[in-house]
Design goal:
It is globular, with a radius of gyration of 15 Å. Strands 1-2-3 form a three-stranded antiparallel beta sheet, covered by helices on one side. The longest helix has 16 residues. By secondary structure, the protein is an alpha+beta fold. The N and C termini lie far apart (38 Å). The chain is built from two helices and three strands; from the N terminus they run αβββα. 10% of the residues are buried.
Length: 105
């Protein structure tokens, strides 16, 4: 089934991501208010419901970051989003923040 996710607003997309994470991980997923960068992240601590499976669930901490674009036919594999060799890609800018969160536990 195809869905036109690009028609969702940033807030609607981020809310959808949190709802999907609650389905996969469990009701313990906590969505946050918008941060300094305008994004609404989420966090889960515990044992997942369905991820990767009920028989062998994930146990730990998950930080959720939703990235939305209004671009049509855009992909997360494009170099402006994900590029191991660039600190200017979207994921390249997020990596130091993630490392800082992890270091702070």
């Amino acid at each position: 089934m195809k869905y036109a996710y690009e028609n969702l607003s940033e807030d609607q997309f981020e809310e959808l991501v949190v709802l999907l994470c609650r389905r996969l991980l469990g009701m313990g997923v906590q969505g946050f208010a918008k941060g300094v960068d305008g994004g609404r992240d989420a966090k889960f601590v515990g044992t997942a419901e369905l991820l990767p499976s009920r028989a062998a669930p994930w146990n730990g901490t998950v930080i959720v970051q939703a990235k939305h674009t209004n671009g049509y036919n855009r992909s997360f594999s494009e170099s402006d989003f994900y590029n191991l060799d660039s600190q200017n890609s979207i994921t390249g800018k997020e990596l130091p923040r993630i490392q800082k969160l992890r270091a702070a536990k």
